[in-house]
Amino acid sequence: MKNLLTDFRSDTVTRPSKAMREAMANADVGDDVFGDDPTVNRLQKRMAELTGMDDALFFPSGTQSNLASLLSHCQRGDEYIVGQDAHTYKYEAGGGAVLGSIQPQPIEFEPDSTLDLAKVAEKIKPDDPHFAKTRLLCLENTRSGDVLPLQYQQQAQQFSKEHGLKLHLDGARVFNAACYLNTELDSITQYYDSVSICFSKGLGSPVGSVLCGSREFIQQAHRWRKMVGGGMRQCGVLAAAADYALNHHVHRLQEDHDRAHQLAEALSTLDFLHCDASKVQTNIFFFRVNSAETAELLRRFLLSQGILIGDGTTVRIVTHLDISDEAISKTIQAFQDFQSSL
Ligand SMILES: *Cc1c(COP(=O)(O)O)cnc(C)c1O
Q: How many other CB atoms are found less than 10 A from the CB of residue 42?
């Protein structure tokens, strides 16, 4: 393989390993639109078991999986309550509104990435012809690397039941949350009506997400998936990558968390940026540089050392499968060299 950059922009940049590619090449496949792909069927069954849900459905992306969830929970003229910067609101091209005529009601995340349930309650609309019908609450876990406490998620479940809302989890990185809490996946997912989980983030698959929920919910999601073009044929080659990730990449997530923490600790000692290492829980953290000019100089300096970060004064750092201990050491050295050059 080519000499790769050390790329901290996202955990989506991982490339499938040789062993994962072999698992993909060897997968038994069939036409999944006919329900005939044994590898997809096995993955769906496995994910239903892991999440403690009735059923599961394989999707090409988390965006489509979240969309199918919105469309299945809500009808035209319904509303979902969601975080202001949530992926399911801000980063999915307004799909729920465009394709489902579902009105989003965004509210600000609290500093710990929860949604304050008292504020959610204020936004629930009474049954009145002036208003959309509030149907669904969406949470995100992890969100910006933060893990939602189990107790909060239990409260959110209780709250949703009391108010007649469904509860969806955008759990793109929910395996990272389970790792941080040192718990099984279903101790988180038990609180939700549906959960969407990505395999193409820290789990290192090239493609794929799974939506889990009740049998009836997954039947509806299945129709929506077909409608938006997500019915795939011999996609067992992709499900095989997800299956491989479950076997080999879940138990190692702690390594990514440890490396994020180690890097954040080192950055927190530098003068030209601000980084709070005590807040790092999983594989994502942020640091802030005071001036845009310094931030750009830093980005270019790191690039010259083969290290890739995003632009802007608030920089997101993400560790993943393709960031080794050596890459962390090299990166810490590069940041220190940059400081010396100032
Ligand atoms: C990546 C991500 C998704 C899904 O994104 P796709 O790129 O469509 O797979 C959903 N939610 C969160 C929080 C994500 O990070």
A: 16
Q: Is the dihedral of CA 334, 337, 341, 342 positive or negative?
A: positive
Cis peptide preceding 313, ω within 30 of 0: no
Contacts of 248 (CB under 8 A, 6+ apart): 19, 20
- Residue 210 Cβ contacting ligand 1 at under 6 Å: no
- Residue 172 Cα to ligand 1 midpoint, Å, equals 6
142 ligand 1 Cβ < 6 A: no
For ligand 1, is residue 257 a contact (CB within 6 Å)? no
User: CB of 100 closer than 6 A to ligand 1?
Assistant: no
Say yes or no: CB of residue 65 within 6 Å of ligand 1.
no
Residue 107 and residue 123 in contact, taking contact as beta carbons nearer than 8 Å: yes
Q: How confident is the model at residue 3 (pLDDT cuts 50, 70, 90)?
A: low
Residue 46 has pLDDT above 90, yes or no: yes
Substitution site in 198, 228, 283 for ligand 1 pocket (most atoms within 8 Å of beta carbon): 198
- The pTM of the full predicted model, rounded to 2 decimals, is 0.97
Which atom of ligand 1 is closest in space to residue 198's alpha carbon? Answer: 9
DSSP-derived pairing of the beta strands 273-274 and 6-7 = unpaired
Helix, strand, coil shares, percent, the chain, to 5: 45, 15, 35
Lateral strand order in the sheet of 314-318: 273-274, 284-289, 314-318
CB of residue 140 inside a 6 A radius of ligand 1 = yes
Pairing, β 194-198 against β 209-213: antiparallel
Instruction: Using alpha carbons, list the distances in angstroms from residue 171 to 67, 201, 280, 293.
Output: 13, 11, 18, 36
Closest residue by Cα to atom 3, ligand 1, is: 62
**Ligand 1 pocket member 172 (CB < 6 A):** yes
Q: pLDDT exceeding 90 applies to what percent of the chain? A: 99
Band (pLDDT 50/70/90 cuts) for residue 84 is very high
Between CA 119 and CA 126, with CA 125 as vertex, the angle to 5 degrees is 125
Confidence of residue 4 (pLDDT cuts 50, 70, 90): confident
